[in-house]
Automatic annotation (TrEMBL):
It comes from the Bacteria. This is Uncharacterized protein.
Length: 291
């Protein structure tokens, strides 16, 4: 049928449908029935078009490609990175050191020392040595205790220390003297040295009495790395005092901030730590927590 004739026929049907609809709706009962049931032709046609439009929208959504962020990974490398890559420096130190370190004060053997130095350098880039320039401590692994603040210059007071004042202040200066000559020459360098200081038993070294002068200068403010193998926390500190005494059962000491960095500043304020020299002749490694 030609398009023009089809259009005319549709117009006639629409017109006839309208006449019949109007006649039918003149009866109250019929009008009420068709209104409630929504079966009036033109109303039903309108609703069906909405339904078809909705179905088309759903179909489009189903066939639409998913955004990149919503794509489900299918390969093992996409599902998750290797657990090793997700480990923090702290976790790597903790897991690596715990496998080879005994849980008691000891001086490491050459073999264990090499293993420890390798683990530390691979995970922190800090070059450490159990033996540095022919010098070594009587203990590489030992108990560290909580120390007081040290006087940084003549006339220094606890009130001038800005952190952890409840730790108190030692009555005398450290074994290697003041950090600065006076208040006017006190710089951030000396501030950090006292903040992150540590204590080692230089007085019990075999050659201390014989080589006292040389050893005192060599150990004074020597940079050390202290690691808590229980939790993997590590801090760079410097030697500022000698001790503690053997009868204390401790081999090392740490400033309030050093102990806080190791998470050993609560409870008994004591713990087993690893203490190594840092090989840093150009003084590039800063004091403080490294991870």
């Amino acid at each position: 049928m030609p398009v023009s004739n089809l259009a005319k026929s549709l117009q006639k049907l629409e017109k006839r449908s309208g006449v019949l609809r109007n006649r039918l709706l003149k009866h109250k009962a019929a009008k009420k029935f068709f209104s409630k049931s929504s079966l009036i032709a033109y109303n039903l046609r309108q609703k069906s078009s909405h339904l078809l439009a909705g179905a088309g929208l759903v179909g489009a959504l189903i066939t639409m490609p998913a955004p990149t962020s919503m794509v489900v990974p299918t390969t093992p490398s996409e599902i998750a990175q290797p657990a090793e890559n997700k480990l923090t420096v702290r976790q790597k130190l903790m897991t690596g050191l715990q496998e080879i370190l005994p849980h008691r004060p000891v001086k490491l053997t050459d073999e264990n020392a090499s293993q420890v130095e390798k683990i530390i350098y691979e995970n922190t880039n800090v070059p450490t040595k159990v033996v540095l320039e022919d010098q070594s401590l009587n203990h590489t692994l030992g108990y560290i205790g909580f120390e007081q603040h040290l006087a940084r210059f003549p006339g220094d007071s606890l009130a001038q220390h800005d952190e952890i004042q409840e730790a108190g202040m030692a009555p005398g200066r450290g074994a290697f003297g003041y950090f600065a000559q006076d208040r006017t020459s006190f710089t951030t360098k000396e501030f950090m040295r006292e903040k992150y200081y540590c204590v080692v038993q230089t007085l019990y070294l075999e050659n201390w009495n014989r080589d006292h002068r040389f050893l005192k200068d060599w150990y004074a403010f020597r940079k050390m790395l202290v690691i808590n193998p229980v939790n993997g926390l590590a801090v760079v500190c410097d030697i500022a005092d000698a001790g503690p005494a053997d009868w204390t059962g401790k081999q090392f000491g740490g400033s309030p901030e050093t102990m806080q960095a190791l998470d050993l500043n609560k409870g008994p304020r004591k713990g087993l730590v690893l203490m190594l020299f840092i090989d840093d002749p150009e003084n590039k490694i800063p004091l403080g927590p490294i991870n």
